[in-house]
Design brief:
229 residues; 4-stranded antiparallel β-sheet; binds adenosine-5'-diphosphate; ABC_transporter_ATP-bind
């Protein structure tokens, strides 16, 4: 069944002005429940714009986006998001950062401490729960961000080039961590990258985008069953 449905979506920034940008034009696609789909394309082709609209952090100029059968109106608590910059709170420990979504939603934190600790263990940070972000490497900080994105048990995971700022070796490690977590938790996932290698490694399906105007030009199923952990 289709979990995310993008129907003839277009996004124009600053319409009618000299700074007008047609960031996304006439784009339709859907993501099935449990599927891992990647938007692949060069810088400026509209990948982030599409992802932000699916997140409810931006609205289409025309067209509609449905998530879990509902038209997107506002950001949903059930959507987990990761960005290139993990934006951890520097004065809080890894564990407190993972639990931050509950604080931000003004919900009690204590009932979720066990789950947060378990997630950190799963990403290989068993000995680092009390470390502050500055005591962690870049890859470790993104591991914390994966846990934070999963702690609310989201049904949809959106990721905007989460590993692009990392060195190549750490990045490959993080792709393995992400696959393991995705395997264990089975969320519908929409991932953005400009790396063909990363897209093919991670995805069930790759949507290739081209810029000016930004649109999906190819929809490629990755046919073989890869080992994912
Ligand atoms: P990508 O994620 O593929 O690099 P983006 O979605 O960030 O692409 O950008 C698509 C196009 O829209 C680019 O030309 C970019 O400069 C433009 N753009 C993105 N955000 C804004 C904005 N807030 N205001 C004006 N133009 C924007
Ligand atoms: P980036 O997007 O940051 O360049 P990649 O993971 O795409 O990172 O690339 C890592 C290395 O693998 C680079 O040297 C790149 O040229 C190479 N590479 C990327 N995609 C392919 C591919 N499809 N086939 C062979 N080499 C690739």
């Amino acid at each position: 069944s289709d979990y995310v449905v993008i129907d003839r979506v277009a996004k124009t920034y600053n319409p009618g002005s000299r700074q007008q940008v047609d960031a996304v034009t006439a784009t339709s696609f859907s993501v099935k429940a449990g599927e891992f789909v990647t938007l692949l394309g060069p810088s400026g082709c509209g990948k982030s714009t599409l992802l932000m609209m699916v997140a409810g952090l931006d609205t289409p100029s025309t067209g509609t986006i449905n998530v879990a059968g509902q038209p997107m109106a506002a950001p949903r608590a059930e959507t987990g998001i990761m960005f290139q910059d993990p934006t951890l709170l520097p004065w809080k420990s890894a564990l407190e950062n993972v639990l931050f979504p509950f604080r931000a939603m003004n919900r009690p934190v204590a009932p979720f401490e066990g789950r947060a600790a378990q997630l950190l263990d799963q990403v290989g940070l068993a000995g680092f729960h009390d470390h502050k972000p500055r005591q962690l490497s870049g890859g470790m900080r993104q591991r914390v961000a994966i846990c934070r994105a999963l702690v609310y048990e989201p049904d949809l995971l959106l990721m905007d080039e989460p590993f692009s700022a990392l060195d190549a070796i750490t990045r490959d490690e993080m792709n393995l961590v992400l696959m393991k977590m995705w395997h264990d938790h089975r969320r519908t996932a929409l991932f953005v990258t400009h790396s063909i290698r990363e897209a093919v490694f991670l995805s069930d399906r790759v949507l290739v985008m081209s810029p000016r105007p930004g649109r999906v030009v190819e929809d490629v199923a990755i046919p073989f069953d890869r080992p994912r952990t």
